[in-house]
Design a protein that fits this description.
- Helix content is about 30%, strand content about 25%.
- The protein is built from eleven helices and 20 strands.
- Helix 3 packs across helix 7 and helix 9 packs across helix 10.
- It is globular, with a radius of gyration of 22 Å.
- It binds zinc ion.
- Zinc ion binds next to loops.
Length: about 450
């Protein structure tokens, strides 16, 4: 949303918010589904039928093209790479600290930026062009939505992190409607026992066929629906869920309450990888979107069945090519091929450690993601939320010089707004320890739950 609209958004009535979101949606739709979108979709669909050899050949050609172009156009890589030489790993810290040097020179003037603080609180600035955006969306249309038997052009819903419902204490409805995209957008921040009926009413009113957004939020909602004996009064076509791991138990509860099969989608804000669950229930990487490697501490590929760090190379991003970028996830290649026969799209056995702890507020509201805590706070390096008791949280912060009282006040306001009256201790630390698997945990809950 534009800044002017965003500023007045919280103060206008629901119908005006719906209108604002729809106007934004109209522009957004043009950007994502316009231009050569259909041709890109056709390309992904065609490669769905390719042999393994043909895909490998295609990916190798694309990789050469991307590296060549990065050396010519991207300041960061011009300095670090030579055509035909070794390709070192690109640490996430480099993109964070030197973001501008990753933007391709021949794209300047037509890039847009998306700023993501990510669940770890470390902001990353992502650059993309309109064509990039269409390519990313085309891949999801063909693979994620297409395999699930539906389309982005069908009525859909989203449970996500956009603050469509302004305040933590706001009253129903906890969703807004975007006419332009036939999309109903539910707040991820208000899922609580007392609000469940309103969420269900939103689904029944707009009847989205495709459910998208945070996996864990859908599970929370479904679980609360089960507890209250509620189900949707219609059957959506599919749910394509991301951001957190989707377990068998989560799928079962979602099926029971939301009456839909949930498919897992694994992606990244950096748009350097995409993996999608097929009808056989396995998670296939799309190498024609981004090449995924799983490597050990020395940067060498690990065999199937062994955990390693995920390193990916974006093939579709002309604005900000990322080569062997370390995404910060740990994953495992599957040992067996998938019965669906798409052997050109390799299968991930598991993405480890994306399932984070859940924080439950005193009023029963459940939150799983805290990226909003760190939004627009450039002096926060990273942060970790620890729930000590139902009404007591500790926020561990690694900060840069310049972090002060104003920022601390802002963080406190954000917590109060979203979790209600909780006691918050802000603890400044020099580093946040990783787990033994090397994973950063953004949220830790010490509260015992039934
Ligand atoms: Zn498959």
């Amino acid at each position: 949303m534009g800044h002017a609209l965003e500023a007045i958004y919280p103060y206008v009535p629901v119908w005006a918010q719906n209108l604002g979101i729809s106007l934004f949606g109209l522009a957004y739709r043009r950007e994502r589904l316009g231009g050569e979108f259909d041709r890109y979709v056709a390309g992904f669909r065609e490669r769905d039928r390719w042999s393994k050899e043909r895909m490998e050949e295609y990916v190798a050609t694309e990789l050469r093209r991307v590296v060549q172009r990065a050396v010519e156009q991207v300041p960061y890589y011009r300095e670090r790479l030579t055509v035909g030489g070794d390709l070192p790993v690109t640490p996430k810290a480099d993109l964070r600290a030197r973001g501008a040097e990753f933007v391709a020179a021949d794209c300047r003037g037509r890039v847009e930026f998306y700023s993501s603080s990510g669940s770890t609180g470390t902001p990353v600035k992502i650059a993309y062009t309109a064509a990039d955006h269409r390519r990313f969306m085309a891949a999801r249309e063909a693979r994620s939505f297409g395999w699930a038997g539906t389309s982005i052009r069908r009525p859909r819903s989203m449970i996500g992190g956009r603050r469509v419902v302004p305040s933590g204490t706001a009253r129903a409805p906890f969703y807004r409607y975007n006419w332009a995209e036939q999309q109903v957008y539910f707040s991820a921040y208000h899922i609580a026992q007392a609000n469940v009926a309103d969420y269900v009413a939103g689904f029944n009113k707009y009847r989205p066929e495709l459910l998208t957004g945070y996996a864990y939020s859908h599970y929370l909602l479904a679980r609360m629906m089960v507890a209250q004996g509620l189900t949707l009064e219609y059957e959506p076509k599919a749910a394509v869920l991301s951001s957190e791991k989707l377990t068998a138990e989560m799928k079962r509860v979602i099926r029971q309450a939301l009456r839909v099969r949930a498919f897992e989608e694994y992606g990244a804000v950096e748009n350097c990888l995409l993996a999608t669950e097929c009808e056989a229930g396995r998670l296939h990487v799309s190498p024609d979107f981004g090449v995924v490697e799983i490597v050990d501490a020395a940067g060498k590929p690990v065999p199937p069945g062994v955990e390693g760090r995920v390193v990916c190379t974006a093939l579709l991003s002309e604005a900000q090519p990322l080569i062997r970028y370390e995404i910060g996830d740990v994953a495992v290649w599957a040992k067996e091929e998938c019965p669906c026969g798409r052997s050109q799209l390799p299968v991930l056995e598991e993405v480890v450690g994306r399932l984070e702890d859940v924080v439950v507020g005193p009023d029963g509201r459940e939150l799983v993601r805290f990226h909003w805590v760190f939004m627009d706070l450039p002096n926060v390096v990273e942060g970790q939320v620890v729930q000590e008791a139902v009404d007591r949280l500790t926020l561990k912060l690694v900060t840069r010089e310049g972090f002060g009282a104003a920022e601390e006040r802002m963080i406190r306001e954000r917590f109060a707004e979203r979790l209600g009256p909780v006691q918050l201790v802000i603890e400044r630390v020099s580093e946040i320890p990783r787990t033994e698997r090397g994973k950063f945990r953004a949220v830790i809950s010490k509260v015992k739950r039934p």
